[in-house]
Specification:
The protein is of the alpha+beta class. 23% of the residues lie in helices and 32% in strands. The protein contains 6 helices and 24 strands. α2 runs parallel beside α3.
């Protein structure tokens, strides 16, 4: 037993000497490799800076948390008002009839607020309903009788050019009224302060977006979609899918939709169409639109068409799946059309493969 233990002791000592000797010889090399790995890891960490926040209305990554309350502006879409200013900065644009076959835009701003917006046009009751759904600060110039009552009753925080023309709203000398009223971002914020409106985000609006690893290519492959409001070519809009950018480019009356401020053509990740009941309420042709009952809807994204439904979710018309869950959107800007149920989606919206 003693001999066995001595041999074990000698072997252990020899092994320790080898290990110690080896470590002494290779220690600098190991240290250099460790430092190199650490440096490489540091470089990788410096370059891969994952944004900590997501924009609520676009699903796009942003470096700072968005705390700005949504702002909705009624923008004129008469041919004499084109090209408009500030469209490219909007997170979402809703297009719907105001009277006859003339449409107007509701531009929803939150991720960014452009320097100048307009031409600004008058309010309708369903515009105010949309602003209420978003808990948005609402900007318009003028109103229908129903809209005036709602604004007077402070259904939404708002400023209106009828009260602040020449004070907050400025007339452009390059266009004629009523197509020449504009407002700056500075004046919007000043107006909110004047009427005692908080501009803090209440986190009311929740959108669903595809994750980066989700393809979201569902439905029928479609390269172009057109919508016709009546027979007037001035209100014929086209959306063409660009496979390189994975976005849609918009034309109205055959002309690219551009932002007058920047000359930038609009680039849209999602184009949606909601079929809604419309009713003419006066001799001028003003409308009411049913924003609550739900109905048929089309969603265009990633070069594909899907037939889905829309429902009123938290006071906002929203595309939904059969399960009732919101349809996922491609991160980016969206354009939403409200389409009269008569003649309806099939008659007004045309597609090309």
């Amino acid at each position: 037993m003693l001999v066995f233990k001595s041999r074990k002791l000698l072997m252990a000592m020899a092994f320790s000497a080898l290990v110690i000797g080896g470590c002494s010889k290779d220690t600098p090399k190991v240290k250099e490799e460790d430092e190199t790995v650490a440096q490489e890891e540091t470089v990788v960490d410096d370059h891969v800076q994952q944004p900590a926040f997501v924009a609520p209305l676009t699903g796009e990554a942003v470096q700072e948390e968005i705390t700005q309350r949504p702002i909705i502006v009624t923008i004129n879409n008469h041919p004499a008002a084109r090209p408009q200013s500030g469209l490219a900065a909007a997170d979402i644009i809703y297009e719907m009839l105001a009277e006859g076959n003339v449409t107007r835009f509701l531009a929803v701003y939150q991720s960014e607020l452009p320097e100048n917006i307009g031409p600004v046009r008058s309010a309708r009751s369903y515009f105010i309903d949309m602003a209420k759904g978003f808990d948005a600060f609402y900007v318009a110039h003028g109103y229908s009788p129903e809209a005036k009552t709602m604004l007077d009753n402070r259904v939404v925080d708002n400023i209106n050019g009828m009260a602040y023309d020449g004070i907050l709203f400025k007339r452009s000398s390059e266009r004629i009224a009523p197509h020449n009223s504009y407002i700056t971002s500075e004046k919007i914020l000043k107006g909110a302060e004047m009427v005692g409106a908080s501009m803090n985000y209440s986190e009311k609006v929740l959108q669903a977006f595809y994750e980066p690893d989700e393809r979201g290519k569902i439905g029928i492959e479609t390269s172009q979609v057109d919508i016709y409001y009546g027979n007037n070519e001035d209100f014929h809009n086209s959306y063409v899918y660009d496979h390189q950018s994975n976005h849609y480019e918009r034309q109205s009356a055959g002309v690219d939709t551009k932002d007058m401020l920047t000359g930038e053509a609009l680039s849209l990740a999602n184009v949606l169409f909601f079929e809604m009941d419309h009713q003419i309420v006066d001799d001028i042709g003003r409308q009411t639109i049913d924003l609550t009952s739900g109905g048929n809807a089309y969603v265009f994204q990633n070069g594909y068409l899907r037939e889905v439904k829309w429902a009123n979710v938290n006071e906002i018309p929203t595309a939904v799946e059969q399960s009732g869950e919101p349809v996922k959107l491609v991160p980016g800007k969206s354009w939403v059309h409200f389409v009269p149920s008569s003649p309806g989606l099939q008659a007004m919206v045309k597609t090309q493969p």
